[in-house]
Amino acid sequence: MNSCETVKKHSIEGTAINFVTGRKEIVHMPHVPCRMEYPVEENPFVSLGVDLTYKCNMSCTYCYNPIRALADMDLSYFEEVCRRLPSYVQFKFLGGEPTLHPDFLGFISTARRYKHEVTILSNGKRYTDSAFVKAIADLNERFILGVSLDGGSSRDDVYQQINNEDCLRWKMKALETLDQHFPGRVEISAIIVRGLNEDVIPELLELAHRHKRIVRYIHFRTSAKAGRWGEKAPYTMEELKEIVRPYFTEKQFQPQCLWETHCDPGQGCGGCYRFRPTPRLQISLIEFATQRAASCFKRGKLVDRQFLVQSFFENIMHNSETLMEGIAGRPR
User: Fold this and answer.
1) Within 10 Å of residue 6's Cβ, how many Cβ atoms?
2) Pair 107, 93: CB distance under 8 Å
3) For residues 134, 145, 318 and 67, what is the CA-based torsion angle, rounded to 10 degrees?
4) C-alpha–C-alpha distance, residues 223 and 235, integer Å
């Protein structure tokens, strides 16, 4: 096992928006050591997050990765990563907004050419464009498209508070467009913020039923003290289970998972819980970016240009804390 102390520290310099002054400034972004870090060739993680781009077409109030002006990941670097990985992984394409990368389709094709699985975690704004969705469908590859729906199917006030935008109309259009033109699987998700949007849970269940041809996964995750967040204390996994459980029978709520990264009941860090209320639908509860989740030994994150992988939530928590201290001038 390689620890971070044995790996040379690196740094990245780029421009970013200071959210206090509104000015574009230079920020020095250190490579922050964590407890679990490995060369790509020794990757032990089943799932790997990949920040394709830091650009975004939204400015969400809750955002764990609010840097915007750093360079996009190079497709040739990613292809070399795919070549070096010792076994197949489940890639999670992240950002920023991953669909904004100019080589977005190329990243999907490259990952699939090397037999890796792919899930795209997106705000869904580009899915309102039927031509873009058709181009994705024309790849004729197996992968999952994600759409975040923090305000469900009715709460534009919640979209405004969490996403800093009235999103309801175009979020619903994105789902309709996917249902019309995308032949594959879709994952819908919501950040559940204490005392704000617990009522979107049944709305996402209804949307999954309404679009049952494509929606195969629902993710409910807690908010997290990473990047930008509100002042309310995030839910714990135990609390999240309690607010989701009433919508299902005891049998439906029993832990069961197919395909996605998971641990057997009673094992792992306890940061996620997956169950299958119907044969076609899988639901995941995720405690996001907490100390408990940071110990997950199955989720990793690719470090750009360095051929290193790190523990996913440790990467998010440490880097988010350091970056926000430098940008906003306020310690976390």
Assistant:
1) 9
2) yes
3) 30
4) 7
Of 288, 299, 310, 332, which is closest to residue 32 (Cα–Cα)? Answer: 310
Residues 6+ apart with CB under 8 A from 210: none
| Residue among 237, 251, 308 nearest 48 (CA) | 308
pLDDT by position in tens, the chain (length 332):
333 433 333 333 333 344 334 444 433 334 444 568 999 999 999 999 999 999 999 999 988 887 777 899 999 999 999 999 999 999 999 989 999 999 999 999 999 999 999 999 999 999 999 999 999 999 999 999 999 999 999 999 999 999 999 999 999 999 999 999 999 999 999 999 999 999 999 999 999 999 999 999 999 999 987 777 777 899 999 999 999 999 999 999 999 999 898 888 888 889 999 999 999 999 999 998 888 888 888 999 999 999 999 998 888 776 655 555 555 444 33
Residue 249 burial (CB count, 10 A)? 9
Angle between helices 104-113 and 130-137 (to 10 degrees): 20
pTM score, two decimals?
0.86
Residue 236, both tokens: 């714990």
Give the angle subtended at the CA of 44 by the CAs of 43 and 45, to the nearest 5°: 95
Which residues have CB under 8 Å from 71's CB, separation 6+?
A: 14, 54
Show the domains of the chain with their CATH numbers. 19-328 (3.20.20.70)
- Owner of token pair 């310099």: 13
Q: Report the interhelical angle of 75-84 vs 104-113 (nearest 10°).
A: 20
Helix (H) or strand (E) holding 34: none
